[in-house]
Amino acid sequence: MSIALDDVSFAAGDTLIVDGVSLQAERGKVLGLLGPNGSGKSSLLRLICRLRKIRSGVIRLGDDDLASIARAALARRIALVEQQAETDTQMTVREVVRLGRTPHRGFLTPWLPQDEAAVAQALARVDMQERADRLWQTLSGGERQRVHLARALAQEPDELLLDEPTNHLDIQHQLDILSLVSRLGITCIVALHDLNLAAMFCDRLAVLEGGRIVAAGTPEAVLTEDLLERVFGVRAHVEKSPVHGRCNIQYRMG
């Protein structure tokens, strides 16, 4: 396994946010995190990045305990794409994406051709190369999200964590971004709200409710009509899509 959590808990003050989660992300596969608002998806991603400190349990990257990995080494291995990231600094798109190279460079390390190549490739992957010299502040919300993904890809991580990466994208770019993520060939954990997109692009799913894992497995095994009503409070019909072959959810009215 690339990422493994064993009985991991996290609390904010006296409030338990993540409660005894055990979960595995297979190397090179896409794991989708689903659950209602406040179920612990974002907190779980931040624990894996060590942006939050676990209260109990163990998180492993490969054979290594996450707590034993130096921060510099961790930054070269894991990239996080958050829901929103803002800056008042006047920066071009290219300059933002160049920040992804920071973990690979020392304080006095010169900018190298491989750095520029990684940035160019990342921009091309998210179709932002023609906007590379535009100011960040002039971009739409969807364009900014694509730049965040490009920054993460320029980091050349082994593990990529994404927190609602399609929130501000139109449907074409939602499909483009998740299709790209599914083809990267690196370990990805993606928190999503759209259940049909999760079914289309994730190899496995884990559903959180109240900080606990209540279901995990393939999309077909997890996204049952009973679970959708019990966890998400919606009545739905689930069937195999004749278009992409994955399960497809049709919500019932009333």
Question: Could you give a short description of this structure?
Answer:
With 254 residues, the chain is of the alpha/beta class.
Number of helices: 9
As for the CATH topology, it is: Rossmann fold
SSE series: EEEHEEHEHHHEHEHEEHHEE
Question: What is the residue-averaged pLDDT?
Answer: 92
Let me know the largest β-sheet: 6 strands, mixed
Give a verbal description of the structure.
- Belongs to the ABC transporter superfamily.
- Keywords: ATP-binding, Nucleotide-binding, Transport.
- This is Histidinol phosphatase.
- It comes from Pseudorhizobium pelagicum.
- With 254 residues, the protein is α/β, with parallel strands linked by helices.
- It has nine helices and twelve strands.
- The protein has one domain (3-251): Rossmann fold (3-Layer(aba) Sandwich), CATH 3.40.50.300.
- Helices cover 31% and strands 28% of the residues.
- A hairpin with a 6-residue loop joins strand 11 (236-240) and strand 12 (247-251).
- Helix 4 (113-125) packs antiparallel against helix 5.
- The radius of gyration is 19 Å and the shape is globular.
- The model has no long low-confidence stretch (mean pLDDT 92).
